[in-house]
Design brief:
With 463 residues, the protein is α+β, with helices and mostly antiparallel strands. Strand 3 and strand 4 form a beta hairpin. It contains 5 helices and 22 strands.
């Protein structure tokens, strides 16, 4: 029995239903061939190419030669016409040159006449101005005479005022002597108060320095925060606790099974900022583990309301033979007035006397630039585009209508991560949509000549 392939009239041909490597024979109605027949090979569903035969090639060659001869004859005629136009243009150019010279002469004559008129106008204007100045000077002299008379009267009045002021100055001098005595007493009191303030400031500084050396206090600023109100940065930083993207971000180094070191960094505990100075470290002690038991400890940043200070503390867990519990910590609210609030930074797991792991627990706070970049990227990678749909290319064996929708270059130039239909009109029920190169292949249950479909594309730069 002979091998048969898909075959039939071109109106029934549907490349979308062919599988890779399948051959389809068009027996009639193929617009690509004068005889209406042809053979197609599918490279993928919806992507089929027509096979060219020798008679197709010979016909295409004959047509190309005839077309080339027509183009050559047309080019020869165009060359003759161009030569005729060149000769005529030369005559037109000489006529235009003569006209330009005549116009230039007329322009020069007009300019000379305008200059003479301007000179006459300027002379008349100068004479009028001089007459006006003479009139003004006469009026000024009259005004100055009146002013001199007025100034004489003012001088007389000022002399009487000076006499009155001299008497008032004598009285003020007497009062100043009394005020000087009072000022001397106040100065002595101010000096005493200044010495007291200096003493108090030195005592406060010593207290802060003592806390820094004895407890590892990580932010002198917190001493000032307690004078206003705790958590004052919550309006900017929020009510949660974070580690900022600064320095080494409190990186933990296990020195031994009983010692842990934290590197420099900055953090926010419910609106209260704290830090380890750049280049500095804080050493913490881990309680020795017990052989045969497991334990979980927590490293926390601890806020204390009474001092406004934040210290690093290790909370010791409870021994267990297996599955040890994470120790409890103070999870109150700073702004609500909790006496102690903890911010967990690391979980330390001990197996016997050995520290088996140190795991980070905190969330790193993004910078404003990082957030702006993320928002900008989000805004530019989601595109909604409404595309017009022409008539269906053909219908398949199940009565579905197939459309090839061209994707705009502004979208196809980027990498399409995903796509979906947002809305449609005039296309019936959409059965499927598939991406093929720079086209969307869509099937519906009706044939449309002016439908529209709105797609949402999620894009990513190809670079």
């Amino acid at each position: 029995m002979a091998i048969q392939h898909r075959r039939g009239d071109y109106s029934k041909f549907n490349s979308g239903r062919m599988v890779d490597g399948e051959i389809a024979v068009v027996l009639s109605g193929d617009p690509s061939d004068t005889d209406g027949d042809g053979v197609y090979v599918a490279f993928a569903p919806g992507k089929a190419k027509r096979i060219a035969f020798s008679d197709d090639v010979n016909k295409a060659k004959t047509d190309a030669i005839a077309t080339s001869k027509q183009y050559a004859e047309s080019a020869r005629t165009s060359a003759v016409n161009a030569k005729t136009s060149e000769t005529a243009s030369a005559g037109y150019a000489k006529t235009a040159s003569d006209a330009a010279k005549t116009a230039q002469t007329s322009e020069t004559n007009a300019s000379n006449a305008a200059t003479s008129a301007e000179s006459s106008t300027s002379s008349a204007s100068t004479s009028a101005a001089n007459a006006k100045v003479s009139e003004t000077n006469a009026k000024t002299s009259e005004t100055n005479a009146e002013a001199s008379k007025t100034n004489a009267k003012i001088s007389e009045t000022n002399a009487k005022t000076s006499e009155t002021n001299a008497a008032a100055s004598a009285l003020a001098a007497s009062k100043s002597a009394s005020s000087a005595s009072t000022s001397a007493a106040n100065a002595s009191t101010s000096e005493t108060n200044a010495k007291t303030s200096e003493t108090n400031a030195e005592a406060a500084l010593q207290e802060i320095q003592s806390q820094l050396s004895e407890t590892g206090l990580v932010s002198v600023k917190n001493q000032l925060d307690k004078l206003t109100y705790p958590g004052h940065d919550q309006a900017i930083m929020g009510t949660d606790s974070y580690v900022c993207d600064v320095g080494q971000k409190f990186a933990a180094t296990l020195v031994s099974n009983t010692s842990l070191k934290l590197a420099d960094g900055e953090g926010v505990l419910q609106g209260v900022r704290f830090r380890i100075q750049y280049g500095s470290t804080v050493a913490l002690t881990i309680a020795t583990g017990t052989s045969g038991y497991k334990r979980i400890d927590l490293v926390v940043a601890r806020y204390t309301k009474s001092t406004g200070a934040i210290n690093f503390v290790v909370i010791k867990g409870t021994n267990a033979t297996s599955s040890p519990a994470t120790p409890a910590y103070n999870a109150g609210s700073v702004i609500a007035g909790a006496a102690v609030v903890d911010f967990p930074l690391y979980k330390i797991t001990l197996d016997g006397t050995t520290v088996s792991s140190v795991d980070k627990l905190f969330t790193q706070l993004q910078t404003m630039k990082e957030m702006q970049d993320a928002i900008s990227k989000l805004n530019t990678e989601i595109v909604t585009q409404e595309l017009s749909i022409g008539s269906a290319d053909n219908s398949n064996y199940y009565g579905e209508f197939l459309y090839y929708i061209h994707i705009p270059t502004s979208i196809f130039s980027k990498k399409i991560i995903s796509y979906n239909v947002v809305s449609s009109s005039g296309v019936g029920v959409i059965r499927s949509v598939n991406l093929s190169d720079d086209y969307l292949i869509m099937t519906t249950n009706s044939n449309s000549n002016n439908g529209k479909v709105k797609f949402r594309f999620v894009l990513q730069s190809k670079s």
